[in-house]
Write a structure and sequence with these properties.
transmembrane helix, 213 residues, disordered N terminus, transmembrane, single chain
Length: 213
Amino acid sequence: MNAASPLTFFLSPIGVFYSVTVPFLLLLIFSLIILASASVPGAKTGKVALAAFHYIMQGVGIVLMTIGAIPTLVSVLGGPPYPGRIYMSLLWVFLAGGALFLWHEQCTQKIERASVAVVHALFVTTVKTIGYAVSLFSALALLITIALGQYRPNWWVSPVILFLFGVLLFWSAKESDAAEPSFQSAALHPAHKGHKKTKSRGWFGFRLFGRRA
């Protein structure tokens, strides 16, 4: 029997539907971001598009760090052990995600505030929502398992890790959002040269999402 072609899915009705709708949906979201950012005084379309690219890459970095960290923690705390090469591969994935996130986070610092304000707000809100949802459903899974009394060996490991991961995402995004003064307020109340700026710190002085310049 001949092996299925890699294009089989894309030639199927479902594949054709997603192949058409997903690019248009991404283009629509990208256009809405640019239109929303255009309402900010001083925003430039090219810089807004560049900021959107950098924040998307930061999201990819967070996904890679999640892929590298969560399976490792689950395995170490109570899951099935992996071979050493698997742990090394997960470590490389985590490091690649961290490097990608930090690199693009530094790139966003070089873009003027007016062009990045809306994109930053959307990114932080998205991460905050994901973190809240992950924490909520993990806590519900933990409580439902306790209520039903259906315990398996190390049943608590995955829900607890996902709950803490969601809390970390939500809190980091919340800290970044709290440290982000509004653009209009910054324009109406310029800082004096002699004014000493104070830094808002997250957990142990670390914030997942950098403060805008």
